[in-house]
Every structure is written in structure tokens, then in C-alpha cells.
Design brief:
- This protein has about 350 residues and is an all-alpha fold.
- It has two domains: about 90 residues, Orthogonal Bundle (Fumarate Reductase Iron-sulfur Protein, Chain B, domain 2), CATH 1.10.1060.10; about 260 residues, Fumarate Reductase Cytochrome B subunit.
- Helix content is about 65%, strand content about 0%.
- It contains 16 helices and no strands.
- The protein binds iron/sulfur cluster (SF4) (2 copies).
- The site of one iron/sulfur cluster has 14 residues, from helix 2 and helix 3.
């Protein structure tokens, strides 16, 4: 049996759950939360576990990832304990907890995290500088200073890095939640579960759609679709470059997809920037610095991508070079930090939904 640890709620305050000790266990949050079921008092179970300091119970729970932060529980809490804010804080706590070698600590330590971002930026700039001055590069295109081959190789290395670390971290979660294997559940069931979660919860975000605030849901959905479109467009361009390098025309299709996908992604990211800046409601009153960095990086990546497309047709070569270098550094930072920062919710949430479905 786990022992009560009153210091835990202090620890979780660093992740943004400032008011949770005010909870007097009335259950209003459970009554309002669309995720609550008869056998899962959502989010009160996590609130109690935090107040009592049951760290193992929290670390091995999928609940923080099932919450969409609609904020309805926080709006109705009579004690202003902000249970929705707690779920968000627990997600940050879990990202840190399951990070390989505690790499996430580098990005979650307040002001000193800025050093980590500074070093990453420096590495990116240094990489660009080395590539720019590499005398071996023969394939320099009129409006590019980095060889496509070098870019592709770099992209593949980063992608492999991301896959390895993401995979290990998902295994760590799997180990911690101790799924019991039941007889009679075959591959067919897992596949069905996977497809259901992918279409209903990832692509349509059905549970999120049950929250009252449709603006947040729409913005999140558009950001996701836009992001998926941009990802698909980038991969397709890379594949065409690799297998059909002489067929310039064929790249028009993914480029058009990229251009179109940027619009919903930009809307979503601007919406979240705006509500966080304006603090329009209770659940945007506090933004952890890791959330700021993530959302600003996404915004800069989309904005610099669009600027590149505009500059491509102009004669402002130097500005194009600078914007391209800037874009590469931002994308490099986003990909490299994917498993260790807020970005990791893109893999943790669908994984948690899948495990919850299997468990059910
Ligand atoms: S509504 Fe507030 S006070 Fe009541 S159980 Fe939930 S967090 Fe605690
Ligand atoms: S923020 Fe919304 S989904 Fe999350 S626990 Fe509160 S009511 Fe439930």
C-alpha cells in the first residue's frame, strides 16, 4: 500500500496546479466532467490522489491524458481548486517522469530551461553555418544554400532519433500501468481498438467534442488536421525528391497540400496564442513556460514556411536565405525536443486512449 505524502502537492504546484489543496471533495467536478463514468470519478480520483500524495498511483494512471482540458470542472468547482488545471499539471509531471534519462528535466526547470533552448538554437545555427560553408556540396539550387541530400539525411537521422526515444518512453508508460493480459483477446480486437481510437478520438476528437466550449474544440481540431497535412506534405516531398528527383512537376501536389494545410494550422495556433495572451477564461489564466515555447515554435514554423513560399517568387535572395535558415532551426528544435516537451502529447494521448480502450 502506498504511503501518504503531503509534500507531493507542493511538487505538483511547480507544474501549474496551484490551488488543489482547497478541494473539499464535494464531487461537483465529477458530476460535470463528460469523461466521468460509474467506475471512474473523473477528475476527482486524481484530485484525491494528488492531495494525499499517491505518486505511484498518479504516475501509473492514464487519466491525465484522457482529459481534454475543456475546463468545465474548473468553472464549476465551488472551491476554485482548478481540477482541470491539475490534470494539465499532471500531464507535465508525467512527461517529465517518463522521459529517458530525465532529459525532459532540461526543459521543465523554469528559468534555467532557457539554457537548454539556447544551446539547441546554437547547435542549429552552427549546423546551418557548417552546411553553408561545406565545399563538398555540389547540388546547390538557385534559391537554397543547403543541399537537398544533406537536408534529407538530416531529416531521416532526426526522425530515427525521435522514433527511438518515443518508443522507449511509450514502453516505460506501458510498464508502469501494468496492463493485465486477458485470455481470449486476440489481434483482431487490438486492431479494432486501434482503428476506433484513431478515427474517433484522434481524427474526430469525439470526446473533446462533448465539451461545451466548441471554439476550443474547433481550434484544436483544425490545428491537428493542419499539422497532419503539413506532416504528410513534407514526407511526400521528401519521398518524391528521393525516388523521382527529375520530375519537378510531381512535387506540386504535396506543395499545394502543404499550402492549404497551413491555413487551419495557423488558425488553431493563433487561437491558442490569443486565449493564452488575453487569459480569456479560467483555464487560460496560467500558461506554463513549456506550453508557451511549444506554441510559439509551432507558430514560427508555420509563419516562416509561408514566408518562404512568398519569398521564393521574389528577388530578395538574402532575406530568403535568412528565413530558410530560421525555418530550419525552428523545425530542428521542434523535432529534436518532440519526446521531451509538450509536443509529446501528440503521442501520449492517442496511446493512453488506446490503452484505456483495451483495458475497458
Ligand atoms: S469540484 Fe472542486 S472541491 Fe469539489 S471535488 Fe472537485 S476539485 Fe474538489
Ligand atoms: S478539464 Fe474537462 S475533460 Fe478534463 S477533467 Fe475537467 S471537465 Fe473533465
Amino acid at each position: 500500500m502506498e504511503r501518504v505524502n503531503p509534500d507531493f502537492s507542493e511538487k505538483i504546484k511547480k507544474f501549474g496546479a496551484f490551488d488543489i489543496n482547497a478541494c473539499y471533495n464535494c464531487g461537483t467536478c465529477t458530476a460535470i466532467c463528460p469523461l466521468s463514468t460509474e467506475d471512474n470519478s473523473f477528475p476527482r480520483k486524481m484530485v484525491r490522489a494528488t492531495v494525499l500524495g499517491l505518486e505511484n498511483k498518479i504516475a501509473s494512471s492514464l487519466d491525465p491524458w484522457l482529459c481534454y482540458y475543456c475546463g468545465e470542472c474548473s468553472d464549476t468547482c465551488p472551491r476554485d481548486a482548478d481540477p482541470g488545471g491539475l490534470m494539465m499539471a499532471l500531464r507535465r509531471y508525467q512527461i517529465r517522469k517518463f522521459s529517458v534519462g530525465r532529459i525532459s528535466d532540461l526543459f521543465y526547470q523554469g528559468f534555467s530551461s532557457l539554457w537548454a533552448w539556447f544551446v539547441l538554437t546554437l547547435l542549429g545555427v552552427l549546423g546551418i553555418f557548417i552546411l553553408k560553408n561545406n565545399p563538398d556540396m555540389k547540388e546547390i539550387k538557385p534559391l537554397s544554400f543547403v543541399s537537398l541530400n544533406v537536408l534529407h539525411d538530416g531529416g531521416i537521422i532526426l526522425f530515427i532519433f525521435l522514433l527511438i526515444f518515443s518508443f522507449i518512453q511509450l514502453l516505460l508508460i506501458l510498464k508502469s500501468i501494468k496492463l493485465t493480459k486477458k485470455n481470449g483477446i486476440g489481434m483482431k480486437y487490438y486492431l479494432k481498438s486501434f482503428l476506433e481510437v484513431f478515427f474517433k478520438e484522434v481524427l474526430a476528437q469525439k470526446k473533446f467534442s462533448e465539451c461545451e466550449d466548441k471554439k476550443r474544440y474547433t481550434a484544436h481540431l483544425l490545428l491537428l488536421w493542419g499539422f497532419l497535412g503539413l506532416f504528410l506534405a513534407t514526407i511526400t516531398v521528401m519521398l518524391f525528391d528521393f525516388f523521382l528527383p527529375s520530375n519537378e512537376g510531381i512535387r506540386t501536389i504535396p506543395k499545394f497540400l502543404g499550402l492549404m494545410s497551413g491555413i487551419p494550422a495557423l488558425y488553431g495556433v493563433l487561437f491558442f496564442l490569443w486565449i493564452r495572451l488575453k487569459k480569456v477564461d479560467k483555464y487560460s489564466k496560467f500558461t506554463h513556460h513549456t506550453d508557451w515555447i511549444f506554441i510559439v515554435l509551432i507558430f514560427l514554423a508555420i509563419l516562416s514556411g509561408y514566408t518562404l513560399d512568398i519569398l521564393r517568387w521574389s528577388s530578395a535572395v538574402k532575406i530568403y536565405y535568412f528565413t530558410f535558415a530560421f525555418h530550419l532551426v525552428v523545425v530542428f528544435e521542434l523535432i529534436l525536443t518532440f519526446p521531451f516537451t509538450k509536443f509529446a502529447h501528440v503521442m501520449y494521448r492517442p496511446f493512453a486512449l488506446l490503452l484505456a480502450d483495451i483495458r475497458k
